[in-house]
Design goal:
Elements (H helix, E strand, L loop, with lengths): L2 H17 L3 E9 L5 E9 L1 H7 L3 H4 L4 H5 L5 H10 L3 E7 L2 E8 L5 E8 L1 H23 L3 E6 L4 E4 L2 H6 L10 H7 L5 H4 L2 H4 L7 E9 L5 E13 L5 E10 L1 H55 L2 H30 L8 E4 H11 L1 H7 L2 E3 L6 E4 L1 H17 L7 E9 L2 E8 L29 H11 L3 E6 L6 E8 L3
């Protein structure tokens, strides 16, 4: 190449070198007598170098790096580039800035560095990394599931709480949008499918819906989904949405329990109203009788009619006895739920035998034939209350036996964790319309039958206090009845 050609090439190189939009510096490696790199000389720099490093060209060109920077930084890396011809890139800190640098070998024993200020980018990346770490810590710590849904690809990010909530592993349920919808209860999918796409949720608009999911173990959890559309296309269709799944199962359980308690309270209030009316009526009846016959007694005494006087006194005595029975039964009903004997493991057969002993006179006078099995289960209960249950049911069977001596069967069966006891008779039977009515206070299907009509109400209340229930079955009028009491079996 001629000298003019070389000069022309050098001129073009300088023009290109100076016009670069990033900083550039041309260096020559300095070695000692043994060939070991000890420093590097700055041959040239461009205008962007001056601006970025705030160093004038005339103050650095022709000087060693150790003279300009205080030390030949990255000497080993630059020597390797010179020796191997490899291209290297790295972050070079200088003062309080960070420069992304690329170095290469243009000629023997020389290297060029090209760099740009990436300080703000790096700081932004650090802030982003800190924000992501903070977000990760928050999502890991919260009991809610945080999600980020890309509607264009149907990809959805789910925080780790999702797998804890559903009971699945990431391998079993990777976490796609389809995986999420597959966990939603079949009856609730209509609430969620196409909700964001089809409901016209506007950009920035918050929404919330509730639905159930089915866990891996088959359990049901109630979920409150809160979300917001954060990106839409040109026609307003959602492109991206963010939100959370909140487990509100406990709230639903509490609401259901409250609803059940409210219903129970309403039923008890209705029962109390009936009770108040019936008690006032039934207690008033003996009082009216007593009051009326006191007038007759006065007249009988004035007339000296001894026979009529004794008959009227007997009527007053019977009315008083009727009132006494009513008050005793009401007092007993009010005591249900209060401890008579501490609940203990008892022999239910022993409670049956005690009830039969208490009813011995009634059983004998009625000629009742009662079948009782030999084996009976043990029961964790208040013995006195269980005796009262059997006594009321057996006495009830005798009263409604119909024509001829009563035939009564006692027995029990076990169903899962329950013990179900029964008293079966071949008596008058019960119309299906009254199978529930008979358990109310003072409800007697035959008003002419002796008693106050509180016995079955006592039985049901005792069963409920022990965590059980009571019900009746009958094939209809004239076909006998079976009264059942179900109680928890001992653990």
């Amino acid at each position: 190449m001629t000298e003019s050609g070389s000069a022309s090439g050098e001129s073009r190189f300088q023009g290109l070198f100076q016009s670069l939009v990033f900083g550039a510096a041309h260096h020559r490696l300095i070695r000692d007598g043994s060939g070991r790199p000890v420093d590097y000389l700055i041959i040239d720099v461009n205008a962007e170098f001056e601006r970025l490093l705030e160093l004038k060209r005339e103050s650095v060109v022709g000087k060693k790096a150790s003279e300009v920077y205080g030390a030949p930084y990255y000497l080993a890396e630059y020597a390797e580039i010179v020796d191997t011809g490899a291209r290297r890139s790295f972050d070079l800190p200088y003062r309080d800035r960070i420069y992304r640098t690329v170095a290469y070998r243009p000629d023997d024993e020389e290297f060029v560095t090209l760099f740009e200020d990436t300080t703000e980018l790096r700081r932004a990346q650090e802030r982003l990394a800190e924000a992501e770490e903070r977000y990760r810590l928050v999502t890991d710590a919260t009991s809610d599931v945080v999600w980020d849904w890309d509607l264009t690809t149907n990809e959805i990010y789910l925080s780790p709480r999702w797998w804890e909530l559903t009971g699945y592993t990431r391998e079993e349920l990777p976490g796609s949008y389809q995986d999420v919808t597959s966990c939603i209860h079949s009856e609730d999918r209509y609430l969620t499918e196409g909700y964001i796409r089809g409901s016209g949720v506007a950009l920035g608009e918050n929404y919330k819906i509730e639905f159930r999911i089915v866990t891996k173990g088959g359990g049901i959890r109630w979920i409150l989904e809160r979300g917001r559309v954060v990106a839409v296309d040109g026609v307003g269709r959602a492109l991206r949405a963010l939100g959370s799944f909140i487990d509100v199962t406990d709230r639903h359980v509490a609401l259901e329990a409250l609803a059940a308690q409210t219903a129970e309270l309403s039923a008890k209030n209705a029962e109390l109203e009936r009770f108040t009316y019936t008690v006032s009526h039934d207690l008033k009846s003996p009082l009216i009788t007593i009051k009326g016959f006191l007038g007759f007694i006065r007249k009988d005494a004035e007339k000296g009619d001894r026979l009529r006087l004794e008959a009227d006194i007997d009527r007053v005595a019977k009315a008083a006895e009727r009132m006494h029975e009513l008050l005793d039964d009401l007092l007993e009903l009010s005591r249900i739920g209060k401890i008579v004997e501490l609940p203990a493991l008892i022999d239910s057969g022993d409670a049956v035998r005690s009830a039969l002993e208490n009813l011995d006179a009634i059983v004998r006078s009625s000629g009742a034939a009662i079948t009782v099995p030999e084996a009976w289960p043990r029961l964790n209960a208040d013995r006195s209350r269980i005796v009262a249950v059997f006594q009321n049911l057996i006495e009830n069977a005798i009263k409604y036996s119909g024509e001829g001596p009563p035939r009564i069967e006692l027995g029990w069966r076990r169903r899962l964790a329950r013990l179900e006891f029964f008293v079966r008779d071949e008596g008058r039977g019960i119309d299906a319309r009254y199978l529930e009515t008979i358990w109310g206070l003072f409800n007697q299907l035959d008003p002419g039958t002796e008693g106050t009509g509180i016995g079955l109400a006592l039985v049901r209340r005792i069963a409920e206090v022990h965590g059980g229930r009571a019900w009746a079955e009958s094939g209809g009028v004239g076909k006998g009845s079976t009264f059942w009491v179900s109680l928890p079996a001992p653990a």
